[in-house]
Amino acid sequence: MIEKKHQQGGNASLTFAEILREMNEDGGFTRSVLATSEGLPIAAVPENPDSELASAMVALLQQVSAETQGHLGMAPIDEVTIRTEDRVHLVCRTIFSGDDWLSLCALVPANRAYRRASNRAVRRIRQVLES
């Protein structure tokens, strides 16, 4: 599993799992996962045996978004969101890195804003990938 560290000011360093943990705390998210374009988990918070299931969902959502983008001639897709009847959101953000990409997905409780916390996590993950 990839577990790069990112220097953040002074001597503190962040791992992908730490970035996810901070995002979950900032946004009040219940679960998050960072996965490769193939759906393989890089980090998940909280860690659990269902990370493979979460990664499979990531891969499916990315496949659907890529097909939709292709058929409609849209610009690259930044986010795919699924909302349940009880207003819980599954939000998947795409993070491009060179010729490949990663998916950052979070389970967001009803009536919670998610964009600010996920934007911060996306920026931090990009910093790790570029270092």
Query: Which secondary-structure class do the elements indicate?
Result: alpha+beta
Question: Per CATH, what is the topology?
Answer: Beta-Lactamase
> Approximately what portion of the residues adopt beta-strand conformation?
25-35%
Please tell me the CATH architecture by its name.
Answer: 2-Layer Sandwich
- The secondary-structure element order is EEHEEHEEEH
Structure summary, number of beta strands: 7
Largest sheet: number of strands, sense, barrel closure: 5 strands, antiparallel
Shape: globular
What does this structure look like?
- The chain has 131 residues and is an alpha+beta fold.
- The chain has helices at 16-27, 51-72, 115-130; strands at residues 5-7, 13-15, 31-36, 41-45, 79-83, 89-97, 100-108.
- It has a single domain (5-130), classed as 2-Layer Sandwich (Beta-Lactamase), CATH 3.30.450.
- Strands 4-3-7-6-5 form a five-stranded antiparallel beta sheet, with helices on both faces. The protein has a two-stranded antiparallel ribbon with strand order 1-2.
- The chain is globular.
Q: What is the gist of this entry?
A:
The protein is α+β, with helices and mostly antiparallel strands. The protein is 38% helix and 31% strand. Strands 4-3-7-6-5 form a five-stranded antiparallel beta sheet, with helices on both faces. The chain has a two-stranded antiparallel sheet with strand order 1-2.
